[in-house]
Design brief:
The complex is a heterotrimer. Chain A is of the alpha+beta class. Chain A has 2 domains: 75 residues, Beta-grasp domain (Ubiquitin-like (UB roll)); 72 residues, Orthogonal Bundle (DNA polymerase, domain 1). Chain A has a 5-stranded mixed beta sheet, sandwiched between helices. In chain A, strand 3 and strand 4 form a beta hairpin. Chain B is of the alpha+beta class. Chain B has 3 domains: 47 residues, Uridine Diphospho-n-acetylenolpyruvylglucosamine Reductase, domain 2; 110 residues, Uridine Diphospho-n-acetylenolpyruvylglucosamine Reductase, domain 3 (2-Layer Sandwich); 106 residues, Enolase-like, domain 1 (2-Layer Sandwich), CATH 3.30.390. In chain C, 25% of the residues lie in helices and 22% in strands. Chain C starts with 14 loop residues before the first helix and ends in a 9-residue tail after the last helix. The chains are: A alpha+beta, B alpha+beta, C alpha+beta. Chains in contact: A-B, A-C, B-C. Chains A and C meet through helix 2 and helix 3 of A and helix 1 of C.
Chain lengths: 158, 282, 455
Amino acid sequence: MPMLELRVNGRDYRVLVEPTTTLLEVLREKLLIISPKVGCNTGDCGTCSVLLEDKLVRSCITVALVAQGKEVTTVEGLAAPGELHPLQKAFHEHYGSQCGFCTPGMLLAAKALLDENPNPTEDEVKEAIAGNLCRCTGYVKIIESIRAAAAEMATAKA
Amino acid sequence: MAQAEFYRPANLDEACALLTQYGAKAKVIAGGTDLMVAVNRKRLSPEVLIYIGDCGLNYVKMVGDQLVIGAFTTHTELAKSSLVMEKAPLLAEAVGQIGSRAIRNMGTIGGNLVTASPAADGAAALMALDAELKLVSQNGERVFRVESFFTGPGETVRQAHELIKEIIIPPQAAGSKHGWYKLGQRKADVCGAVSAAIVVEMQNGTCRKARIVLGAVAPTPLLAQAAGSKLQGKALDHTVIAEAAQAAANATAPIDDWRATAWYRQRASGAIVKRLLEQISV
Amino acid sequence: MALKVVGTRQKRYDGLAHVTGETRFVDDVFVPGTLAVKVLRSPIVKGRVKNLDTTAAERLAGVAGVITPADVPVNGYGLIPDQPVLAESIRYKGEPIAAVAAVDEDTALEALDLIHVDIDAQEAVFDPLEAMKPDAPRVRPEGNILMFGERNFRQVVLGDIEAGFKEADHVIEGEYFHPALEHAQLEPQTSLAVPEANGKLTIYTVSQALYFHLGMLAGILHMKPDDLRCVCKWAGRTRSSWRGSIGLSDIKYVGGTVGGGFGGKNDIHADHVTAILALKTGRPVKWRWTREEELLYSTYRGAWIIKIKDGVRNDGRMVARQVESIRDAGAYTSMNSYVVDKHCFLVNGPYHVPNIYIKGYCVYTNKPPSSSMRGFGVTPATFATEVQMDKIAEAVGLSPWEVRFINAVRNGDQTATRRKLDSVYLIETMQTLAKRAGVVLPEKLQAMTSAERGA
């Protein structure tokens, strides 16, 4: 069984995996990092979204061994322990999360967007989260949350 | 259950050697966005996986006047490449609408072709651009026009020991215009019910050449040659456009499935071609 | 007394855990040694299992246990307990026949392939209108239409419908079809059952209706609900007293964190299978449905056919409303009897009509059982009645606003089920709505209130 070495949220890990083991399975079942969820397991819903080298990917259809030597970020790694990333704070304060099942993936889709475009328009936010399904909010509060976080991050920078 | 094997060749030669060794037992993996869906749905359990991410197939470059794209280039990279946007904007537009961001970050143009989905957005665009693709193996290289690469749904001329190395897009004539449209139930993460990629070469108000390609309306992406011929040597007026659109619809051989009925696909094909040609003619 | 919470915006009590990824849904609970479950689903739409042989599956390395209908203590559940946990009489394609617990999903799937099952196929019926015909194939032995007491429909009567139509200047008819709809919540049906060292069984559930399911599960496992203990942080909010108190006993039911439900988790989908497999194997057992199973076989909002006939006077007042609705229940009752009840009680909408006659049928077909979804039959009713209100407006030449204002329920009015209303603010709500939508209402409507009608 091949050995996979990867870095998750700033920590190095070594795990034995099967060739077809997915990154999602490694995170959840081997590392017990539970924020990425199994929503569809076919790359359709976005609940398993993580950042691989800062790029948004579906961990459920990412072969774990492809992440060899790479850096993975999940919601657990967005902020230092006890602190909140502006996106986490905004989702909490602007009701961007209801049942919470899509929230980790949605936060990472938002993080990937803001990393590349710190001041997105409403349409740009919609495009960026189009692959992440939410069944509770109707998306309005999520879009508000992401734009609120962007505004806060801009203020903090200024 | 047999233990599967995973290989990570460091270059193209190693990859070809592995493919010669394992042949049909091996599955080549690039982004994995199609392959792993099949694995997760228990429809595929590959014995050997060969990951080609380290084989130097990630590039977009000019070779002479041709635009050459490595098979491992992701949709995101293509959609954002200034070279692709300049030399083949149709391709940038089409692959920019594949899946959603997370899928485009992993999925590659080679994967889009080798999967041979009749709805493959990259394939339709490349056919309209009259592109070629190069297969490589230990026996050497073979080059195919993209439209002759596909032989059926999920089927291509690629042999088990071969790998797509790169895609070659010829220079587009001055005055070339393009159109792209994907019709699906939603914008993201959707496999088109009908898609259309069109390249029209205009000169002094008349069409010199046109390539009209329709996706998801036949066993392979469909080059509607009769429709293209209707435009040749003519100005794109309403009558000519209507004739070409009708010819495009007539060329389709769609199926009924949960995405759309054959009836709808055929009508939508005509409507989409008409709309795109009207936009191009302006 | 000053109010601390009312009138202020409150953050979600579970919001911080959601945004930090700390919330644990059922699938996020890991217990060492947990077995994976896969279920053998019928490839046949309707028929009878003639022969079921699980010997080879049980012998497969890695398989810890296989259950068949013979392993289910009481093989029926639902509001009317007509749905088997594992079926011998197959009534829809995909109906569970047997279940396997194995070391992993792949082994469980391999075991399913080793189960030998023969099913005598029988004729099926899919269309509720066909199913209602006397000579239709029987979905179930009791007949294809649910009995509400002595009638095969739920009936709601107010006033005298014939007299109402006589009073009418216009009769406006409409027929509406609402298709089946899947909840598509993001968390699939998941259940983890853990036999504890002290002899109790802990079940981590996605249930939206914890105490209700506890009673149902106790019924399936043949234990009295009074013997059961339920531990749930938030259960106090959903607790109903429908079967008396819940005491200490054998099941510890852990729930309260639901990754979306929308009515799709009002029925037991997985807890019964994991419970029985855990009891049989003595091992922790987890069953997570695939998205494909979720879309094909979980409950959903069944389709509705709603026929409405309204009697309206020239001045726009409704004087008679007659409704005949048909609910496609699929193969089992699940919550459909209540869905039809609530539909019939509320299909009249928020309008005051003195003469009402409503008939609601619950019809069985050979499809997966439908059940509750957001409103228990009221949402499709609202779709139909509100389109009907627009038709009335057109027929009598009034604006859609005015027709709704004229007929709106007011304080002191009686509902179709003879409840006298108080605290009604429908007219005021519509006035606010118009204002926010930028619609300028005629003065007559602006002056209206929900005060009791004059005699």
